[in-house]
Specification:
Number of strands: 9
Number of helices: 9
CATH superfamily: P-loop containing nucleotide triphosphate hydrolases
Oligomer: single chain
Distance between the termini: 6 Å
Structural class: alpha/beta
Shape: globular
Strand order of the largest sheet: 2-7-1-8-9
Strand content: 15-25%
Order of helices and strands: HEHEEEHEEHEHEHHHEH
Length: 195
């Protein structure tokens, strides 16, 4: 990597298929207590799930609010996924990078590739893949948050996500959660040190 890291921060995008474990991995990364780590909270128009907290898990917006912010250019990237809109707010990310922080985003593959176009070498893309397609279906069903029809809809994206993941900087297979978290931390550390 080039020398930009010495003066500015790093934007780390973690992507995975639905149910691939990216939320759990990020939670474990932040349990390390590194003061230089920041989490970019996405905005969404999807309904808030039980146990989710506005401003912690997502910023939950109405479609009208989302459309207004998108028109104002407030998002780094946005997408419609499974009938709902998601986006990454631009202002906090730019500020944290300028402050030399390591900023983590939880995005789908298309969002990650859009971020890479915008941030170039300042963005590091990490794709987390499940050990198998079958293990992913088991994880999704085990969450009990979606109907079989919704799960089937998510699974239709799997082949495209796997293909696009080849454009990512790093690929990590999530067979063992502890090992996966350590791999992600090592990738980030190597990127910062090499800068």
């Amino acid at each position: 990597m080039s020398s930009w890291i010495k003066n500015t921060g790093l934007l780390v995008v973690i992507s995975a298929p639905s149910g691939g474990g990216k939320t759990t991995i990020l939670r474990r990364v932040f349990e390390q207590g590194n003061a230089d780590f920041q989490y970019s909270i996405s905005v969404t128009t999807r309904p808030q799930r039980s146990g989710e907290v506005d401003g912690k898990d997502y910023y939950f917006l109405s479609l009208a609010e989302f459309t207004k912010q998108r028109a104002q250019g407030d998002f780094v990237e946005w997408a419609e996924v499974h009938g709902h809109y998601y986006a990454t707010p631009k202002t906090p990310i730019r500020k944290w990078i300028d402050d030399g922080k390591v900023v983590f985003c939880d995005l789908d593959v298309d969002g990650g590739l859009t971020v890479k176009k915008e941030f170039g070498d300042a963005a590091l893309l990490v794709f987390v893949r499940p050990p198998s397609f079958e293990s992913l279906v088991v994880r999704l069903k085990g969450r009990n948050t979606e109907s079989d029809k919704q799960i089937e809809k998510r699974m239709q994206r799997y082949p495209k996500e796997m293909k696009k993941s080849e454009l990512y900087d790093h690929l990590v297979v999530n067979e063992n959660l502890d090992e996966t978290v350590q791999q992600v931390l090592q990738i980030v550390n190597d990127a910062v040190v090499s800068g």
